[in-house]
Write a structure and sequence with these properties.
elongated; Glutaredoxin; Nuclear Transport Factor 2, Chain: A; four-stranded antiparallel beta sheet; alpha+beta
Length: about 230
Amino acid sequence: MHRKLLPLALAATMSLPTLADEAAVIKKAVEAKLARTVTSVTKTPYLGLYEVYVDGQIVYTDEKVSALLIGALVDGKTMKNVTDERMQKLTAIKFADLPLALAVKQVRGDGKRVFATFEDPNCGYCKKLAKDIAKLENVTIYTFLYPILSPDSLEKSNQIWCATDRAKAWNEWMIDGKAPGGKGDCDTTAVKKTIEMGRKLAITGTPTIFFADGERIPGAIPIAKIEQKLAQTK
């Protein structure tokens, strides 16, 4: 009896869908429902849910894709925001891969603490960030001009890039409100490449900050948080 049953048991086990099979089915189903490209599908330890990363956003679903849950998933024991932690990992980059030559560079003090920002010159939150980070010491800041808000944003970005002193032109506009005086008629390929890069990195809002460890943080975060992050990554 056992000799006959064993092969059947093995066959049944082998026929069970693997996690990879389930992920592939979920990926196809979610892409069909949302008409968007799914980057990854990962099984979570919560309620049999799968984490689906699609277009820079996390969506949760079950193996049958019977429902799509959009929002924060919080661990009931630790009360940690699981979604936020996963987003930090999923959106992280290799800082060394950033083409820093395309950015406006500012060095203060010893310049040992490094981070990069993607900013639109007409972004109000970016102007607030500029005023805050002006208080930082011993930093190197790479500002990528990312004009996504309006045609005027592109014009101002080009003018700032064409300025003799780009960092000065940037700060005078963002902090003091002094409009850049250049014509923007130099080689502005760097601005165009930054726009292309930002789209590839799924940067949909400004400001977006990248720290030396690759972590991405969107929005004008408090200066205290920037200081804390710089202390952790130096």
